[in-house]
Structures are given as C-alpha cells and as structure tokens.
Amino acid sequence: MDDERIKAAKQLQHYLESLLPSLTPDTRLIHSSSRQFHARYEMDGAIIGVEGAVQQVLAALRRERNAMLPVSYLPAEILAKVLSYGTLADTLSASWVSRAWRVAAINTPSLWTCLDLEAYPNNNFRALQLDRCGALPLELNLPIVKDLRSVLQPQTPYKGLLSRSYSISNLLNLGVLEGIDASRLQSLHLFSDAADLMPSRISVATPALRHLCMDMRSCELNHMAISINLLHTLHLYIRSAKADVVLKRLSGLPRLQELLVQWPPDGPDEEPMDIISRDILTEHNGLQRIYLIEPPKDFLSRFLAHFRPASHTNLYIAPCYLISNGILAHLRHQIATHTLWMDPHLCSFTFDHGTSVTKIMDTHVESTSFRGLPDPVGLGNLTSIIINSGPPPTSRDLRILTKLTKFSFTFEPAPLGVQQSPLADTLNEELVKSCPHLQELALVLRKPLSTNFFVKDQALETVLSFLEAWLLEYEVVFGTVRISDRVKPQRWSSQLDVLSSITWLFELRDIDLASQAPEFPVPRRFVPQRPPLRWRLPAPMLAPLDNFVNLDR
Which residue numbers delimit the F-box domain (predicted)? Predict the structure, then answer.
C-alpha cells in the first residue's frame, strides 16, 4: 500500500511537469473584449478547481506520510492523550515500550490518579504512584476489607487519601467518611454486606456529589446520610432490601439524568406499590437514561402505565415480560419510532426515535415462526425495520407498516423435517400492496447453524417474483436491492441483467445487520475498568520505574 502511494505521487509529479511546456505564456498585448473577459473568468474557475484537487492529493499524501511515523516519535502530549483512553494497567505496560513512551507516561500526572488498591496492593508502588500524580484529585478503588488501615502504610493515612478523592468505589461503610472533608467527592460507590451501611449517628457533607451507586446486599436503608439533592446519576443494586425510601426520594432529585435499578433475578415478585406514584414518574423530564434490570412484573406494569418519557429519554428494560401485550403501547405511542432493530434469537428489540432509543430484552422463547411485532400501536410511523436473525415476518405481519421505506432481514432455509414459513410468505404481492413506499430491500441468506441439510430456499425465484409484482403494480422499477448470499452466491449471476433492469440498483455484497443496531448509551462505570488477569502487570515488578537501562534510546 505504501509503495502504491509513493508511485502515485511520482506519477502525478511527472504528469504536472509534462504540462509545463504547453502552459508557458506567450508575450502578447491583451485588448479588451468580451471574449477575453469571459475567458479570464473561466481560467479563474479552472485555477480554483486545480488548486482544490492538488490540495486534496497533497493532504492525502501527507496523511499517509504521517502514518509512517513510528509511534515512538510521536510528541509526548499526543502519546499522553492516547494513553489517557486506557486503564492504569495500560499506562504501566506503555511505560516499558520505549524511552519516549516511558517519559510521556511518567511525566503525565493525570495518568496516575487512579489508585486501585485492590488490584495493586503493593505499598511501594502506591507511594510511587502518589508521587507521580502530584496534588491531583484521586480516583480511589478500595479493597473489600473492613479496616482500611490494615492495607495501608502508617505513613499513608487513609483519611488523607479519602479527602483527596473525587471518586471512591467499594466503600463498605459511610462511617469511614466521618470527620473527613468530602467537598471534592463527585462519585461514590457504596458496597455492603452489613446492616451498618449508613450509621444513623453520622451525616457527611457532600456538596459536589453528582454520581451515586448503592449495592445493597442485606441492609435496610432507613435514611440518607449524604447529600443527594444534586445527583445526576443514581444506580441501585437491590438484593434483599426494600428500596421504597430511595425511590421516594426521586421526587427530590430534579437534576437526575441517569437511573439504573437492578433487582435480584430470583427475588420475590412483589414491590411496595406506593413508591410508584404518578408524581414521581412524571416530574423527571430531565431523565436521559433509565435502566431497569430484572424488574418485578407488577413494578414494571405500573411503571410503564404511569411513566411519561420525554423525546430525549433512553430506556432499557431487561427482561420485559410484557413485550407481547399492549402495555408497551402506553409507553411509546407518544414518541414516533422511525427504526426498529430486532434479533428474535437474542430476544433483543431496539426502537430508534431519532433523539432517543428504547432497548427491550424479552424472555427467551424458541420458535420457528415470527412471533409478531412487539408493539403495533407505537409503530405507525416506522420507516425502517432490521431483523438480524430468526424467522422473518410475513407480509401479513408487515401490512400495518404503511410508511415503511427500508426492509432488511435475514433468512435461513428450514432444516430437513422442520416446518417453517418459506421466503415467499415475506416477499410477495401482498407486501407490494401493503408497503407502497418501500424503496430499499436488504436480504441476508445464510445456512442454518444446526445442520448442513436444509430445504431449498427458492430465493432467486422469490426475489424476481417480488420485483416483477412491484413493476406491474406501480409501473415503475423498484429502488435498491442488496443481497448477501452465504448459501449459494453463484446462482444470481445468470439473472444479473434482468435484476438490474427492474431495479434502480442491484448489488451482491456482504451485509452485516448486527452492526446496524441503533447505538444505546452505556451506563456510567463506577468501578475502574481492568484488563483480564492474564494481561495484568503485577505492581511489584514496577519498583525501578526510573531505570532506563535496556530501553530504546
């Protein structure tokens, strides 16, 4: 690839040099005339066009040249920016790549502010890390121990670390923060197996707290000992505690933007219903992300019936036991959905509303036929449907989608002896009449994963019949057809001329429907991300960090 770029640059140079003799101006007296006046303006346009084309070529060549620069020669500030996207383990590994990388890592204090006392308990390494980060605020990940003093050196008071921290995770007891200046604290992760998570005798001032995660294992939450009125993020992992006190406090969190609640997967199917009042659910128009994981059925039913989402509210429910009935209509009929991405095998449904996304994970049910659209009432404005796997819908399922313009789906031939709807049940004359605005069709044909013996799918004949029916119905050729045939790709060759004549564009190409799923925002991470154990570099090996012996010069 590099040789091709160099060859192209030299060919361009020779071509431009060959043009110079014919462009050499002859000395002559120019008289005023309309012809010469217009010629001059045409020349100006030609010069601008040539300059633009040459600049684009030069920019491409310069990008290629910059890409050839070894990473060890990148400026230190660029290296530091690249390393900032990794974890502490990545910084440690990068500091041993070369001298330039080591200097960039060591001389960038912000790369050393994450103190993971659980993954790196070595006291010497901790002292070195504190020296590297200087006076910057810390991101502190505590080990799961009741007494912090047992894992810290006497010369490293734990209260000093806590007061310097803007983020603390795995805190077992709020009593540890008693008497500590927590004015810097912005993010707090509480994790407890004990009943003394929030002792009633203390109250901690946290004016800057914006993100709170509470992992309650076996405690009854009786009061809030910290300031939460200005929270932007609230995560609740409920094991055996009733969260009525916390959920009632939602009405007092006007700035809340992200809410995550997870119940135990085998917990009782009951929840205090007085916590789900209409006022609590309708006052939070600022909520941008809601994640409900393993919600009790009664809770979910009340929530979907009362909650009124704004156009910017992203909602995630896993699993949603009510997806097959009309309860979702109460939630989403107010917000138009233009794209529906489905994976029936994974029981995943993603509704794209333009300014927000709703993602539903249904309970897993094996089926050889399409189970129906999840929410017919809320899909009246649907313009695009993408089905990544599983049986495709029939034309009868799609007849309510009168505004559909794009239809993408996967079809697998039925294994021998298995009853399954043929492809003709989807692509037929009924679909032509039901979806008059359809302009783009993408079909992925692939073999069943379970067997190599399957029924002939008749895909070529079905697609031809559908396109001919479209031409007869509307007296115009169909728009765009893309086929990804992983069963028998050579069968389309004999009919390419016919297919091209009855479509605006016909393509045989690989199609990845999984990558077309609407992107859903990821919840905030409270515990530092770590690499797999086999990649983690032990802290004791890093004691001589300032020794540059055996490093590239």
Answer: 68-115
